[in-house]
Fold this sequence. Notes:
Mean pLDDT: 92
Low-confidence stretches: none
CATH topology of the domain at 14-128 and 190-224: Pnp Oxidase, Chain A
CATH superfamily of the domain at 14-128 and 190-224: Electron Transport, Fmn-binding Protein, Chain A
Distance between the termini: 41 Å
Number of helices: 7
CATH class of the domain at 14-128 and 190-224: Mainly Beta
Oligomer: single chain
Number of strands: 9
Amino acid sequence: MTMTAPVIPPSPTREEYAEHYAAALAANGDESIFERAEPVGLFVEWLADAKATEPNDANAMTLATVDAEGLPDARIVLLKDVDDRGFTFYSNRESAKGEALAAHPAAALLFHWKSLRRQVRVRGAVEPVSAAEADAYFASRARESRVGAWASDQSRPLDSRETLELAVARETARFADGEVPRPERWTGWRVIPDSVEFWRDRPFRLHDRLRFDRAGDGWAKTRLWP
Length: 226
């Protein structure tokens, strides 16, 4: 059987930029971002823009790690907090990502907002959140999600959907008369950024790039060629 290669769309023409990308290009033409002194405030503003325009999960990010054998891996997770300390997400410490972070506590993050034609890249060391932080976030989750955290042996082989549903039913019954506490294996991590790079689309691949690198207690910034 002969396979037909998919048609890769060509780069947009001037007319296509003008017709389809006008709103994003207007939003991405403000030079004031290059006057910013630190990255967190700018990231928070871009995230707010994305929440207003992305169809779902504006806080979705690619998390890249390296396992004990030195092999890279990547998956989508959800950002749950960001402040001057870093970018925080939660999961099961016994999952593939949890084991990778235990072996090499460093990571890269990538946010890609198609509606805005923007992306942000973050690199840095990773530290676990405190038990109090993990407890507080776990308590904010839907009850069904908390039960699911007890039921799931995340990243382990699963023979059928029925087995998963039976595990959920078992844990639902176990916690039927009370609160669902946080399992010890369920926790969070904070990526402490050493560098944060902002990228935004401009016509004809002449994009804007701005990178912040940690310098002591502050940040050094560099405008990059596209």
